[in-house]
Structure prediction request, 441 residues.
Amino acid sequence: MRPSYAKLVEDVALPSMALVRQHFDTEPATDPTAAVEEAFAQAKVVSERIEPGMSVALTVGSRGLASLPELVRAIVIELKARGAKPFIVPSMGSHGGATAEGQISVLAHLGITEESVDCEIRSSMETVEIGVLENGMSVQIDKLAFEADGIVLFNRIKPHSAFRSDNESGLIKMLSIGLGKQSGADNCHAWGFHYVGRFIVEMGRMKLEKCRVLFGVGTLENAYDELARVVILPPETMVEEERVYLGQAMRNMPRLPLGPLDAPLASGPLDVLVVDYVGKEFSGSGMDPNITGRPSSTAISGGPDVARIAVLDVTDKSEGNANGVARADVITERLFQRFDREKVYTNSLTSGVLIAASIPLAMPDDRTTLQAAVKTCGSHTPDAIGIMRIPNTLHLEYLYVSEALLPEVRKRPGIEVIHEPRPMRFDAEGQLLDHWPEHEH
Prediction:
């Protein structure tokens, strides 16, 4: 039976929407296998540190990096070619329900299996304490990685979704939190995100000094969610070098077509932002606050001023981990039903950001969800509602914009109008029928 509250929005008019395409000025894509081969061949630290017969723990996290299976396979091949015996260590803090089996499952959903990358996966939540910071914080590292002859860190370098610092998402965070497993991540997050940037460096430096880190393999992506570059950083200069690449990664980010063109983040008011999917493969926060302007932590700021955010679903790869969907204002009933408290609560209790585990108002279907957002957005011009719809916060090449926004969007360089404004289409169950073009870049 249709809930009575749905009747309160059934007469809300939805604006016509135009499909537009953004052409970003960014680094070109590169072949993952060739990029890894070239990086390994040019890095002196590789030939200096890899010895035949040594066991090497390779870190792989829970994020959906561009070309992830191809990159991991290529790294494994390069390590084996030099006589090493690599094995993969799931390095994702508390993700996967903070269980060894759950973390293997997360990797499988990302395309990482022993068969796909031709490498053994050894998963355990057991850690070893290697020291204590000045504030008394225990510094933990995965026991299997600690006992290996060497550790090769692998991660994408990019801005974080919950804090600002000189080092954010990347090799240092992988070393300090990812390899710290549940206990290490819990310790680091306990002080709140205002301190995470400081602690990951302090913990990272201690681990670089006391653990057998051989080098790090970092990736940078372009605005189209494509691999742009592979870099290898030696442990001696990893902290400082990663900071340079973080600046490049920030400049590579996609953004909504709002605000000054030369700013890394969009800015300015928007009535409604519709996000088709949240998911861990798009952002650690499910939907990246660098895009939405809606962080779960006061340790990060910037982005557009959105009156209402509507989210329609969570990806299959996230397995119900819709952590961060709380930053939306209204969601669909199907997203509500897929919300897995086991995974979300584990994530939020570890990070200390409890608000990220909340659930917004849930409406029966896509139509009523959008109508609820429009009805409550507080617009003083109901006939000129400003709406942008995106597939997720990582893929912003294509987006729908409402008729009222189209004149300003047209003026921006790199904007191509695929089709002029037309009414939104829904099926009999109230789900949107206006789908997305295939990735054409």
